[in-house]
Amino acid sequence: MAENNSMTAQPRADLKKAETTRSGGFFSPRVDIFETENELLLYADLPGVAPNDIDLRFENGELILQARVNARPNEGNLLLEEYGSGDFYRVFQVHESIDSSRIEAENKNGVLIVHLPKEEKAKPKQVTVKG
After folding, report:
1. What is the mean pLDDT of residues 36-53?
2. Domain coordinates of the chain in residue numbers?
3. I need a labelling partner for 76 at 20 to 30 A (CA). Which of 6, 57, 61, 110 fits?
4. What is the DSSP letter of 17?
5. What are phi and psi of 49, to 5 degrees?
């Protein structure tokens, strides 16, 4: 399988700090990135995030993902807590072979799906071999 260098996550130490007016930490969402012939697909886990609370921007060759998680209501006595509270933040460097004017995204069941279409010149082309 060919190595994909079209999109890379920045090391955690290099993440830009997001400005916030809420206290609490930021979580780095887990992602899967797939490459097809026509695009890269980024799947980001954003549990508890509504589509209106997602800020997805492309600036200066970077895809910036910020998502706001609304606080859960406290109902009864907490017996076990494994789900942390806080917003999501992650930045990806996007290769110039991606057509940034056609980036699209959708949020389904807590998973953000980002479509990063390749420019025509970056798509693989079949070469006919004459014999």
Report:
1. 93
2. 25-71+84-120
3. 110
4. P
5. -105, 130
CA 30 vs CA 46, 66, 88: distances in Å: 8, 13, 10
DSSP 60-81: TTEEEEEE--PPPP--S-----
pTM above 0.85, yes or no: no
Rounded to an integer, the average pLDDT of 63-67 is: 95
Instruction: Decide: residue 48, CB within 10 A, 0-12 exposed, 13-18 middle, 19+ buried.
Output: middle
Q: Check: CATH 2.60.40.790 for 25-71+84-120?
A: yes
Is-contact 29 44, C-beta < 8 A? yes
Residue 69, both tokens: 């998680």
Residue 98 makes CB contacts below 8 A (sequence gap 6+) with 6, 7, 40, 116, 117, 118, 119, 122
